[in-house]
């Protein structure tokens, strides 16, 4: 009886067995990892006009995408960081964050995993984060312009976004290498 219950949980809404119970559990853990590292390991920027925050959620997002791929990277980034926004004073950012971080995780996971199938590794992870970072900077620039109705002040957020991306890359790429080398991922 228990086997049928688990098997039924593994069938998604379309009737396919593409996203299994194990995938849901892994995604939940990745979302929690992104949320916790965003919410509890952060620094407010004193020089940004509209606030600004540097956090280590990017390390968790980049790790999720590099190790688990585009789908789980997108889910972890979108839900983990949007959940932070919903539970913080930044609630107005939640819909934008959901899309921006979801696409960012998808980009990083896509580039990283495509390269790894061809035997390439670290250099492509850097490229993946660079491309995801360009998307993030452009996305938050546009979101801030829409929210505040000003297209000049969002430029003050760019340095903080670049620091977030760099910190995330320098934390995630060596960690991903170690996790993959020692086969620590599920």
Topology of helices and strands:
Blueprint: H1 2-9, H2 21-39, E1 42-44, E2 53-55, H3 57-68, H4 70-86, H5 94-117, H6 122-148, H7 158-181
Antiparallel strand pairs: 1-2
Helix pairs in contact: 2-3, 2-4, 3-4, 3-5, 3-7, 4-5, 5-6, 6-7
Protein name: Putative membrane protein
InterPro entries: ECF_substrate-spec-like
Organism: Anaerobacterium chartisolvens
What does this structure look like?
- This protein has 186 residues and is mainly alpha-helical.
- The protein has one domain (16-181): Orthogonal Bundle (Arp2/3 complex 21 kDa subunit ARPC3).
- The chain contains 7 helices and 2 strands.
- The chain has helices at 2-9, 21-39, 57-68, 70-86, 94-117, 122-148, 158-181, and strands spanning 42-44, 53-55.
- It has a two-stranded antiparallel ribbon.
- Strand 1 (42-44) and strand 2 (53-55) form a beta hairpin.
- Helix 2 packs antiparallel against helix 3 and helix 3 runs antiparallel to helix 4 (70-86).
- It is globular, with a radius of gyration of 17 Å.
- Residues 4-14 have low confidence and may be disordered.
Q: What distinguishing features does this structure have?
A:
ECF_substrate-spec-like; 70% helix; transmembrane helix; Putative membrane protein; Arp2/3 complex 21 kDa subunit ARPC3; mainly alpha; 186 residues; membrane; two-stranded antiparallel ribbon; transmembrane
